[in-house]
Amino acid sequence: METASQATVLDQEANHHESNKGAFMVLALLFFMWGFITCLNDILIPYLKAVFELSYFQAMLVQFAFFGAYFVGSVVYFIVSSSIGDPIAKMGYKNGIILGLVISATGCALFVPAAAYHVYAFFLGALFCLGIGLTVLQIAANPYVAILGKPENASSRLNLAQGFNSFGYTIAPAIGGYLIFSFFGGEGVIGSDALKVPYLGLSALFLLLAFCVKLYSLPNLTEGQHIEKGLAVLRYRHLVLGIIAIFMYVGGEVTVGSLLVNFFGLPEIAGLNEHEASAYLSLFWGGAMIGRFLGAISLSDMQDSRKMKIMVGTAAATLLVIYLVTYLNTGISFLEIWPFVLFIFLNLFAFKLGQSKAHRTLAVFSVSVMVLLALVVTTTGAVAFWCVIAIGLFNSIMWSNVFTLAIRGLGKHTSQASSLLVMAILGGALVPLAQGALADIAGVQLSFALPIICYAYLCYYGVSGYKIRSSDFAQKGES
């Protein structure tokens, strides 16, 4: 009888594991899609800047509209959740994801009338709508991945999901750059018309994904959960400091990525045209993909003796994919990207220093980016060029590590806390705007000194800010 009972338990665990595995695969596709669509902003900025003859500050309104939507959407979500209870807890993660996909599809479709009327403000409105949709996706999907398994492996799981997000970022510059600048934006195409077909296609993809998610049976992780109201979630110190950390991370990452095409075009750096520069964005975002896949391995419960071998093999395989994407757009030989290979080895060494601990790895990587940014500002040519590309490698694990460190132990407050963390994506709206203004005044290269402030705070969070204060949980007798 005991043996039969044990067998039943094992069968249930196996089925639960398979269910979680299938759900993760569906979510990985979602992470890929919003990575792809977000990185297209880096192509839109130089394109719209040329079409509408904008200043750097005006061009950065692309990021302001897009990431500002995260702030507005998250504030509304938090107000609703604190007043009547958490919407995601009520509707379920699955319905929350479907809602986010439908809104995102609408935002993409709005690019068609925006291009038809050729009004910059209309494009900003479409980006805002798209950002609202991705806000809902972020609020639902990030905590869902984090709690879809063992708590101790949450950072590993989210890093793996973010790896697919980075894959979207990696191929978006190559595909988007080709479609917008060459295929649909070739000779004879007027102004913003090149944006119609690509974004209409993306709208259709989002709707198809929503239909697929509707048909797929995702595990219900909110069933029986108490619907929490009020502002009690703000008493947790590690969450509040984590909100600031997300602001700094997204602000730092987005502002670096946003000006890369212009930075690569500087005569003293590389003198690349927009199409060539957009292809090199694949190396920057590809570095984040490598780092996130490595982070998933490093922060897992895998035996330490196997980790480094698997990490090296994963880095080599992922680098091959990134090189092929870059080669198809530039025709460069592998020997021309050898500095990037060197930075991958430095990234592996940084993981070693991180000792498979989320907070320690965050601190080590933050210091690494600060050093790289200092070199970007103070050098020229190949050194500055490859240092700025290498930042992607060290940005890699920051979102996942901060997010999982910030929601540790929050239980019924998790979705509400997630909305606050997503609200902090506002950093992606404000920091690029500030750097754009600085670029207009002091030049593009010197403007890269600004994000150093962001990474200094991230280092603090990895050293001290992440720590849980037991008194926060004792206030209501929580364990």
Task: Explain what this protein looks like in three dimensions.
It is built from 21 helices and no strands. The two termini are 36 Å apart. The protein is mostly helical and 479 residues long. Helix content is 77%, strand content 0%. The chain has helices at 2-51, 56-59, 61-84, 87-91, 93-109, 111-117, 120-146, 154-183, 196-215, 237-258, 260-264, 274-298, 304-330, 338-354, 358-378, 381-395, 398-406, 414-423, 427-442, 451-465, 470-474. It is globular. It has one domain: Up-down Bundle (Growth Hormone, Chain: A). Helix 3 packs antiparallel against helix 18.
State the name of the first-level CATH class: Mainly Alpha
Mean pLDDT: 83
Number of strands: 0
What value does the Rg take, in angstroms?
22 Å
Distance between the termini: 36 Å
- What is the CATH architecture assignment? Up-down Bundle
User: How is the main sheet built?
Assistant: none
Query: Order of helices and strands, N to C?
Result: HHHHHHHHHHHHHHHHHHHHH
Predict the CATH topology. Answer: Growth Hormone, Chain: A
Structural class given helices, strands, pairing? mainly alpha
Question: How many discrete structural domains?
Answer: 1
**How much of the residues is beta strand, in percent?**
under 5%
CATH superfamily: MFS general substrate transporter like domains
- How many helices? The count is 21
Q: Low-confidence stretches at least 5 residues in length (pLDDT < 50)?
A: 5-16
Percent of residues in helices comes to over 70%
